[in-house]
Every structure is written in C-alpha cells, then in structure tokens.
Amino acid sequence: MAKKAINPTKSLKIPQIIIISAKICAFVSTKLATKFAARIFTTPIKHKVPKREFEMDRKSIQKNVYVPAINKSVVTYHYGQSERKVLLVHGWSGRGTQLFKIADELLANGYTTISFDAPAHGKSQGKTTIMSEFIASILEIEKQFGPFEFAIGHSLGGMSVLNAVKDGLKVNKAVIIGSGDIVQDILDEFIFKLKLNNEYSSRLRIFFEDLYKLKMDEFSAYRAAQKIKIPVLVIHDNDDPEVSVKAGIHIYENLENGSLFLTDGLGHRKILGNQIVIKKILEFIKIN
C-alpha cells in the first residue's frame, strides 16, 4: 500500500448554474433535458496547463494527427528518443502531459512515451467528445507511431486502453490507473450529480446509442477485460472519490492475466505522481 496522503482529492462537483439549467430543461420537456445532459456529459473542461507539466510540453515533439475514423485531429506528444515506446492515455478533462511524472521515469529507464490530447481536450480542437473517439485516436496513433511495448491509461484513458486492446491495439502489457468500469454506472453517477430523476440515466444511454449507433455497455471496462489475454496491472486508490475502488476490483476479477495494486489516500489524481505507484509500474513492465 502507498503511504496515506493528506486531503485526498474531493469528488468533482457540477456547477450550480448547470444543475439549475438542467432542472429548467426538465420542466420544459424530457427530450430537452436529455439533450442538455448529453451535451454536458460530452463536454470536457479544458484546464490551463500547470507549471509542473511545462518541461514535458516543451521537450516533446508535437504533431497534429488526423483520425479518419472520427474525422477529427488530435495533438500528439513524442517525448524521448528511444525506440522502445510506451503509449500514455489521459482521462476526462486531462491532457497529454498529465502523466508527466510517469513519463519522466520511463525516459530515465530507456523508454520513449507517446501521448496525445484527446478530441476536445488540451490543444486538440473541438468542444465535445466521447470514449469511442478516445479509442479511435489510440488505434490511429498506433498506426503512425507504433508499435508500442506498453500502454498506460488513467481514468477514462484506462477504459479506452482496455477497449483499444480488445479492438486490436498490440502491446505486451497494459496498466490502468483509477479506471472507470460499467458505463451505466457512470451515467447513473452523472445524472445523480446533475440532480435529475433516475429515469434520465436510461434516457441518456438510449440517446447515445441512437446517436452513435452502438451499445454503450459494450464499452464497459470489465467486458473488454474478459477478452484480453495480455498481462494487465490494475491500480486504484481505496479512497478515490470519483471512481469507486469497486470498479478497479471488478475489472481485475474479469482479467485472465491481471494484477491488482491498491493504494490509500491518493485519490483520483495524486496517484499519478506517487513514487511507490510509479515504481510498481516500472517493476510490472520490466518483468518478462
């Protein structure tokens, strides 16, 4: 277990103005409220890049990569000179430099990292996106920068890595950190935070399924895990306020060749910079 941290990250809250707007929409019509909820659900927050990520941003070779499957472009970060490449995938409202501490340690151990700003994130254009676009971006980046030896994903990036492996991403091992699991649970939690009636969770799922012509549950991490044969290290914090540790445990239970590492007091984001966690990742990828 990692050392307990003080004041773990609190769960993100939806601004009151958005909650009020959702209730107004619901008063007008369920269809309007569903569309409003879908818009908020698919709109990430673009945070200002913190100073601690400046070095990785400055030293990376950055390139716009077009992803034909979704008709969008993403900004990629090529960090390091080694031929041994590791793919890094950030989570919702994250950035390609967010896993910089992990990237720095990988560079020190002879690896190069390739990361990217997912659609509507960071320097990539757009205002809305969804997990299927994360996955499409990963698969296109593999075509242009691969092969990768390993893939590491955080939060939604962890779900995306598992789904990408299921869909053909070829890596020797994968690491997922604070990954979400069941899509319906994620929708339920979102609707709860939006303070709408529970029925909107199903309405939102049906809305997305009609819009994207796919079944949302097919993207649940545990379902992807059931089809994966490579070794996967699942890392999750017992005190994660955004994604319950039950998600990580459930994913692990559905892996054929999984390992589970639980931490305490690191929350959802501090876990990315914890030295014990990073050491565990390095040990995992170096084991033959």
Automatic annotation (TrEMBL):
<feature type="domain" description="AB hydrolase-1">
    <location>
        <begin position="86"/>
        <end position="179"/>
    </location>
</feature>
<dbReference type="InterPro" id="IPR050471">
    <property type="entry name" value="AB_hydrolase"/>
</dbReference>
<dbReference type="Pfam" id="PF00561">
    <property type="entry name" value="Abhydrolase_1"/>
</dbReference>
<protein>
    <submittedName>
        <fullName>Hydrolase or acyltransferase (Alpha/beta hydrolase superfamily)-like protein</fullName>
    </submittedName>
</protein>
<dbReference type="InterPro" id="IPR029058">
    <property type="entry name" value="AB_hydrolase_fold"/>
</dbReference>
<dbReference type="InterPro" id="IPR000073">
    <property type="entry name" value="AB_hydrolase_1"/>
</dbReference>
<dbReference type="GO" id="GO:0016746">
    <property type="term" value="F:acyltransferase activity"/>
</dbReference>
<dbReference type="GO" id="GO:0016787">
    <property type="term" value="F:hydrolase activity"/>
</dbReference>
